[in-house]
Design a protein that fits this description.
By secondary structure, the chain is an alpha/beta fold. Helix content is about 35%, strand content about 25%. It has 18 helices and 26 strands. The structure holds 5-amino-5-deoxy-1-O-phosphono-D-mannitol (M6R).
């Protein structure tokens, strides 16, 4: 949540780098934004409420030069989404931008007020600015003032600070919130997310908790909180800068929907041998899983839905019992965990606070931990004993799409990995299952060909106010996911249910104003039962969108309003394919409604607060 960018150098116009970076970070938060640039020894601050375009408008009336600056885009935690609460926050010569939460800000605020500091905003961040200014004006160097301030600050933070009195540097510090520096030629960058600076430099240093980075035009240093120098490796990022552009699509979400075949292919590449019926994951050794008797899978939102499908996959293929928990529920319910438990945290961003905390709770209780995430060296990746990366590439649209299908393919491969090593499945079975993996990118391509049909369906349905999504088995979580996608981006009320539960309550909602999406790929063991649901909905005049595979008899066609035919595949792979038309349906309904698809109201891509 929130995004930070910083630049020092004169190769580019500072304001252009900041605005370009903020544009790429806007998906992380879009309540307000602001920049600070030091021009001729004075900080110029420009802030605006609302989307970045408001800040741009303000800046278009100004000329800002200067070769050092910081910027921020905000998702409000403390204090409303107003201009006065927008970052940067200023005290004396010091300007600060911050991601995270300062837990002891009220105590610090009281002390600072006693010392005569005046607070202008309702944010927790403003205490950082005053605290640094207090140390600085009382004789410490800028660097030492920042270090001293953070010795008394508790919470999670990624912070960038500049000062008029030290216009040759940016100081950055992090704890529990990501921050990277990127190295250029006689220029350096700072960002909370690689995508902000990827088009300028691919040489990146991931700061660790407690690192203080001092960026100058001609170099950088990293120290700990005591001022002792620390060495950090430089990583070369291989994400293609084109991957952070819209590439001709109207929205990131649509682009990312279309990238799923490629993303799945990248995610499986080099991870199996079809000939031997083997699956491998870099850095994983089966010995670590030898004594595992039970798995708990943890995630939020779409990643939680991936966990629910992972349960079907892992139990069916490896025979290990799996419990699935919402990360936000898990740690507060006193879960029973022991050293024979494997906790799997599934998270696109690798930063979701609830999932990170749930994973730490499992770890404290003795579980082995495995992260499945899309972001290298993210918090959750670093906190886990083992990591499997999905290789979806940057996902910018707030509604998760390609991250989900890559999570599913990883869970499927992981099931084969466990099943084969545990000798639950034979080599022949493993080869067959891997064969399905190989075929999945093609199936995804085929499913994407439904786009025109779904667009037309979206045009017919966008005026409805309520939707039901029903599915069974591994497609029950797809019903949840279809409903989540629709409500997130179109603001239409939608519910997902296990179709077998329909008669136990949801059927009361069905009438002629209720479109019901029935997810019923033909090969599932419950296909006939789903046909029973279809008749029950029909009898109550519900509008039926029948998502199936294979042939549909003329008789059956008569009972449905629309059939969506996905390509045929095994039941266990079908969730990956069935979700494609549902993502497209949500997208086109939202498009016809005219909502903000990539940045839906009240949401942020990365949820770093509990
Ligand atoms: O980064 P994560 O996968 O941990 O994020 C989890 C959820 O916040 C996320 O899936 C959210 O529900 C998306 N907006 C769904 O489209």
């Amino acid at each position: 949540m929130c995004g930070i960018v910083g630049y020092i150098g004169n190769k580019h116009k500072t304001i252009n780098v900041l605005m370009d970076g903020l544009q790429r970070l806007e998906y992380r938060g879009y309540d307000s934004s602001g920049i600070a640039v030091i021009e001729n020894g004075h900080s110029k601050i420009v802030k605006s409420r609302g989307k970045l375009r408001n800040l741009k408008k303000k800046l278009s009336r100004k000329t800002l030069s200067g070769y050092v600056g910081i910027g921020h885009t905000r998702w409000a935690t403390h204090g409303k989404a107003t201009e006065k609460n927008a970052h940067p926050h200023v005290s004396g010569s010091v300007s600060v931008v911050h991601n995270g939460i300062i837990e002891n800000y009220q105590e610090l605020k009281k002390e600072l007020i006693k010392k005569g500091y005046v607070f202008y905003s309702d944010t927790d961040t403003e205490v950082i600015a005053h605290l640094i200014e207090d140390y600085y004006k009382n004789g410490l160097s800028f660097e030492n003032a920042v270090r001293s301030a953070f010795k008394s600050i508790e919470g999670s933070y990624a912070v960038a600070v500049i000062s008029d009195k030290a216009p040759d540097r940016i100081i950055a510090i992090r704890k529990f919130s990501p921050l990277i520096i990127a190295i250029g030629e006689k220029e350096n960058y700072l960002a909370s997310d690689i995508s902000a600076i990827l088009s300028y430099s691919r040489k990146v240093i991931f700061l660790d908790d407690g690192d203080v980075a001092i960026l100058e035009k001609n170099g950088y240093r990293i120290t700990d909180l005591e001022g002792k120098e620390v060495k950090r490796d430089v990583s070369v990022i291989n994400w293609d800068p084109v991957s952070i552009e819209k590439g001709g699509y109207r929205h990131y979400m649509l682009k990312e929907i279309h990238e799923q075949s490629r993303a799945v292919l990248d995610t499986i590449r080099g991870r199996f041998s079809e000939e031997m019926g083997e699956v491998y994951f870099e850095g994983l050794n089966y010995k670590s899983f030898n004594n595992i008797k039970r798995i708990v899978a943890l995630g939020c939102g779409t990643s939680f839905h991936a966990c629910l499908i992972g349960k079907y996959m892992i139990e069916k293929i490896s025979g290990i019992p799996v419990e699935v928990d919402l990360s936000s529920e898990f740690r507060y319910r006193g879960p029973v965990i022991d050293s024979k438990t494997l906790a799997i945290a599934v998270s696109q961003s690798g930063e979701t606070a609830d999932t990170s905390e749930a994973l730490l709770e499992a770890r404290r209780k003795g579980a082995k931990t495995l992260a499945i995430t899309n972001v290298e060296r993210s918090k959750i990746a670093r906190e886990s004993d083992m990591v499997i990366y999905t290789r979806a590439g940057p996902e910018i649209g707030v509604a998760s799409t390609k991250a989900f299908t890559t999570q599913l393919i990883v869970l499927y491969l992981f099931s084969i990995y466990l099943g084969k090593n545990r000798k639950i499945i034979t080599e022949k079975k493993a080869k067959d299952l891997i064969g399905e993996v190989l075929y999945t990118p093609q199936l995804l391509e085929k499913a994407l060909k439904l786009e025109d049909e779904i667009k037309e369906l979206g045009r017919n349905l966008y005026n409805y106010s309520n939707f039901l999504f029903l599915g069974r088995g591994p497609n029950y979580p797809i019903a949840l996911e279809g409903a989540l996608k629709l409500k997130e981006i179109s603001y239409i009320h939608a519910e997902g249910h296990a179709a077998g539960e329909m008669k136990h309550g949801p059927i009361a909602l069905v009438d002629e104003n209720m479109p019901v999406v029935l997810i019923a790929p033909r090969n599932g063991v419950t296909y006939n039962k789903l046909l029973g649901n279809l008749q029950e909905i029909r009898a109550r005049r519900g509008k039926i969108i029948f998502l199936t595979s294979g042939e549909v008899s003329e008789e059956l066609e008569k009972h449905v309003d629309k059939t969506i035919r996905i390509p045929e595949c095994s039941s266990i792979i079908s969730p990956l394919i069935a979700v494609i038309p549902l993502q497209l349906l949500a997208y086109y309904i939202a498009m016809y409604k005219g909502t903000d698809i990539d940045q839906p109201r009240n949401l942020a891509k990365v949820v770093t607060v509990e």
